[in-house]
Write a structure and sequence with these properties.
The complex is a heterodimer of chains A (about 290) and B (about 325). Chain A has helices at about 5-35, 40-60, 70-85, 95-115, 125-130, 140-165, 165-175, 180-185, 190-210, 220-235, 240-260, 265-280, and strands at about 130-135, 140. By secondary structure, chain A is an all-alpha fold. The radius of gyration of chain A is 19 Å and the shape is globular. Chain A starts with a helix and ends in a 13-residue tail after the last helix. Chain B is mainly alpha-helical. Chain B has a two-stranded antiparallel ribbon. In chain B, helix 1 (about 1-20) packs antiparallel against helix 7. The radius of gyration of chain B is 19 Å and the shape is globular. The relative contact order of chain B is 0.17. The chains are: A mainly alpha (about 290), B mainly alpha (about 325).
């Protein structure tokens, strides 16, 4: 029994953080599934979300979770614009040009954040977020519970959007076959822009709910980009449910690895798993041969 | 013509040394970056395998020099040879493992491998001194030259750059160079022509890694305080790759042009951007991808070829 409570503690902690990884990964996988773009700026969108919440909290006294009301629509618009201005010009260009363009965006965002907010770590302190709830000996921080609830709500909303609306159907059609979708009257250019916007909004949402949990530094983005890649490749690039599974898995693996093996290698466990999956099961742990959204 | 240009690079280096004595450290970083980018280009440009993990070889080179000098009092030239051999072996294993991956998946795998190596460097405190790092106090003097003086380091960096450019020039004109380009353009066709794509990519990777590690050795001596943070970081890998891509992938002098442009730009805007100088890299790569997909030298080359062709067609 002695080992059970810490184990449960680690697993729930891992699941709650993993939910946020899932939120980040879902956006990345959606963008890849529909547009075939590997978005290297994805983690930096998370960083934008964090700093948005921090700036609104500091300057206007916004509750961090209230800034979601700005982050979600703002993310869709910003993503739409980025897609139209940069990525839409590269749709049929060969090789790794979209990868390089998003890598460039990532550098621009990280360094612009650095110029605006400085290098010192920034955070949000709200009293209720640091409290913990005790469930049978397992302590759960309130901020993580709120994060879990929001993650669940957002992913449910995304699922409804993709599976229960006409627009969502157009998105899925574009992912399956762009030409086919165009032939039945889907404006795939608009779908691409919308999907990039939704992906960015999801990442920014993850950033907002991470802001009360940990410190933000301008370069935090690249580590989230890596995590998002790990999450999506674990599950199989291009599949939304697989990204959710991958996210939860990464969260738990990180927590367990850090507490039972060595905490210095916390980030390495995910990368090892990533490489192994990439090499021996490139369609992902839960992947089938066909790509679906 | 190529050899003439190569001599031109050496002369420009000499001119920099004489005319800009206050900027010798900048010159060293410029030439090292240009050397790394040229070495990167053997794999990334000529063979078409974009790597975002080359900082691993820079780190390997620097740490090999540091550890061998510190522990075994090994002379730096033996340390450098050892580093190059280690880098080549590491590249062979690394490539053997990941060359089956295509396009973006390969890029992601290079990041993952380099990140794992960085975490090893941070955590193997016994070997690398961990996050605090390692210091190089004294080194044996080749021909009585003090390796810690900026003047000597400048000459070594220039020598390194010219060496890498010469190796790249020789390689890309030879059999392997044509095979590398064939593999880059179309692997199945290359295979049909009797080329073993994996072997070609492994050669390119091993040579690229060894040359990068040699530059890493020099960089380690220049820094003399080795820490995993600047040496193994993703940012360094990204800089090496972007410099080559902005200058022009698969061109001999593209990486050098890119390195010069970006180093000088970063220096000019140092007061404006402070440590945010990667902003320039980011903005430039977006512009290059959108408007000059072959890089600066690549676009120039294409334009010249087109003009020459038009003239010959007319005449």
């Amino acid at each position: 029994m002695d080992g059970l409570v810490p184990l449960l503690q680690n697993v729930t902690g891992g699941l709650l953080i993993g939910g946020i990884y899932a939120l980040i990964g879902v956006g990345l996988t959606l963008i890849f599934g529909v547009m075939r773009v590997i978005n290297f700026a994805h983690g930096d969108f998370v960083a934008i979300g964090m700093y948005l919440a921090i700036a609104l909290f500091r300057d206007l006294g916004f509750d961090p979770y209230l800034s979601l009301a700005i982050a979600l629509p703002g993310g869709v618009i910003a993503g739409w614009v980025v897609q139209r201005v940069v990525l839409a010009r590269l749709v049929d260009s060969p090789g790794d040009s979209t990868l390089l363009a998003t890598l460039g965006l990532s550098l621009v965002i990280a360094n612009a954040l650095f110029l605006t907010f400085g290098a010192e770590p920034a955070s949000i302190y709200v009293p209720y977020a640091t409290a913990t709830v005790d469930v049978g000996g397992v302590r759960l921080p309130v901020a993580q519970l709120i994060a879990g609830a929001i993650t669940l709500a957002v992913i449910a909303a995304l699922w409804l959007f993709l599976n229960r609306t006409e627009l969502g159907r157009a998105v899925r059609a574009t992912a399956q076959n762009r030409l086919g979708a165009e032939l039945v009257g889907v404006n795939t250019r608009r779908v691409h822009a919308l999907v990039f916007g939704v992906g960015m909004a999801l990442a920014m949402c993850a950033g907002v709910i991470l802001a009360p949990l940990l410190f933000a530094i301008p370069t935090v983005g690249s580590s989230y980009t890596l995590k998002a890649f790990v999450v999506t490749v674990l599950g199989g690039l291009g599949s939304v449910p697989a990204a959710i599974g991958g996210g939860l898995l990464l969260g738990v693996v990180e927590f367990l690895g850090a507490s039972y093996l060595s905490s210095g290698y916390r980030d390495a466990y995910g990368l090892f798993a990533f490489l192994l999956v990439l090499l021996f099961r490139p369609q992902g742990l839960f992947g089938r041969e066909t790509k679906r959204v | 013509m190529t050899w003439l240009r190569l001599a031109g690079v050496a002369v420009l280096g000499l001119a920099w040394f004489l005319l800009l004595p206050d900027y010798r450290t900048l010159g060293i970083t410029l030439m090292l970056l240009a050397g790394w980018a040229t070495a990167w280009d053997l794999l990334g440009g000529w063979s078409g395998q974009t790597s975002l993990g080359h900082a691993a070889f820079v780190g390997l080179g620097a740490y090999t020099i540091g550890i061998t000098a510190d522990r075994w009092d090994l002379a730096p030239w033996w340390g450098a040879l050892l580093a190059m051999a280690l880098a080549a072996v590491m590249a062979l294993l690394w490539g053997k493992l990941t060359f089956r991956l295509r396009a973006a998946y390969f890029v992601l795998s290079t990041i993952a491998v380099a990140e794992i190596l960085r975490l090893v460097a941070i955590n193997q405190r016994g070997l690398t001194g961990g996050a605090i790092g390692l210091f190089i106090f004294d080194l044996e003097r080749p021909f009585g030259l003090d390796l810690f003086s900026r003047t000597v380091e400048f000459w070594f960096a220039l020598g390194y750059l010219v060496l890498v450019l010469a190796v790249a020039a020789l390689l890309t004109r030879g059999r392997l160079g044509y095979q590398m380009r064939a593999v880059r353009e179309d692997e199945p066709s290359a295979q049909a022509a009797g080329i073993n794509p994996e072997a070609v990519k492994l050669w390119a990777f091993a040579i690229s890694a060894a040359l990068t590690a040699l530059g890493g050795c020099l960089y380690g001596i220049v820094l003399s305080a080795l820490q995993p943070q600047p040496l193994f970081e993703l940012h360094l890998s990204v800089r090496i790759a972007l410099v080559a891509i902005i200058g022009g992938r698969g061109t001999l002098f593209g990486p050098l042009v890119g390195a010069t442009l970006l180093t000088v730009a970063a220096e000019l805007f140092r007061n404006v951007f402070a440590e945010a100088n990667l902003l320039i890299y980011g903005a430039l790569i977006v512009v290059v991808v959108l408007f000059a997909p072959h890089g600066l030298v690549g676009e120039l080359d294409r334009r010249l070829v087109r003009r020459r062709y038009a003239r010959s067609a007319r005449g």
